[in-house]
Q: What sequence folds into this?
């Protein structure tokens, strides 16, 4: 199945040529797809069903790749990959001057802590291990980005957009994710300690075993997402929605929630022992 999923990625990106960071991005995305496929199989899906659901979760790459530019050239006009060092310098200097076009670049392990990166577009970029701590990333875009192991501690990610990205083992501690969208993302191992999650949307995302313990969630949206062994111990839930999400194995021990949220979860057969309503 790995070969079939790899072929799916090759076919998906074939029209765009060998744009910078393609190899790094494809490797990260393949690992994401393989893990999602394995999870679906473990849940009882057939090979065909698991493959279909896995590829459907990938999203529309044409929207991401449209007008992809770097260094003044489109993805089909250049095959030269800039070094991580030069891209880091460009990100620090260029974005502050109003140039948000940093799609399909390689910034593996780059240190961009404290940078002014509002409205930056890092779609299709290789950002594994990159550091964005305390950066201004309001309305930034991370579509189909490889972000595994990167850090956003204390960053302002208000209205940012993560779509079809690998966000496994990413640190969002003390970050502001107000009205951010994390759609079709793998989030296993991600950390959300003291994160602001007001009206944050998690759609078609895998949040298995992620901890929201002790958090205050206001208007947070979990839409069609996997919450297997996701924990909300001691958390406060206000007007939180869980539409079409798998919550039977989520843990809500000691949580406090409004009556509407409680009723919604109760109707979805969540275990609400030791939950307080107000």
A:
């Amino acid at each position: 199945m790995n070969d079939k999923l790899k072929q799916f990625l090759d076919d998906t990106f074939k029209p765009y040529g060998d744009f910078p960071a393609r190899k790094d991005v494809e490797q990260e995305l393949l690992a994401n797809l393989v893990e999602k496929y394995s999870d679906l199989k473990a849940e009882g899906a057939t090979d065909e069903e698991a493959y279909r659901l896995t590829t459907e979760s990938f999203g529309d790459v044409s929207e991401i790749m449209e007008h992809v530019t770097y260094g003044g050239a489109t993805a089909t006009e250049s095959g030269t990959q800039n070094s991580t060092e030069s891209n880091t310098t460009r990100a620090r200097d260029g974005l502050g001057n109003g140039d948000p076009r940093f799609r399909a670049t390689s910034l593996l392990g780059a240190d961009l802590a404290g940078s002014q990166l509002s409205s930056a577009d890092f779609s299709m970029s290789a950002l594994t291990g990159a550091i964005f701590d305390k950066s201004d990333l309001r309305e930034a875009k991370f579509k189909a980005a490889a972000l595994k192991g990167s850090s956003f501690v204390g960053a302002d990610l208000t209205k940012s957009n993560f779509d079809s990205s690998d966000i496994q083992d990413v640190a969002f501690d003390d970050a502001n994710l107000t009205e951010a969208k994390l759609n079709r993302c793998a989030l296993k191992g991600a950390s959300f300690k003291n994160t602001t999650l007001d009206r944050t949307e998690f759609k078609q995302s895998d949040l298995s075993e992620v901890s929201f313990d002790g958090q205050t969630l206001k208007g947070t949206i979990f839409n069609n997402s996997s919450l297997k062994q996701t924990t909300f111990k001691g958390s406060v839930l206000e007007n939180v929605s869980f539409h079409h999400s798998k919550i039977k194995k989520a843990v809500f021990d000691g949580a406090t929630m409004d009556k509407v949220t409680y009723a919604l979860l109760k109707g979805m057969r969540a275990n609400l022992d030791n939950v307080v309503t107000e």
In short: Confidence is low (pLDDT under 50) at residues 67-83. The chain has two domains: 1-181, 207-278. The first strand starts at residue 69 and ends at 70.
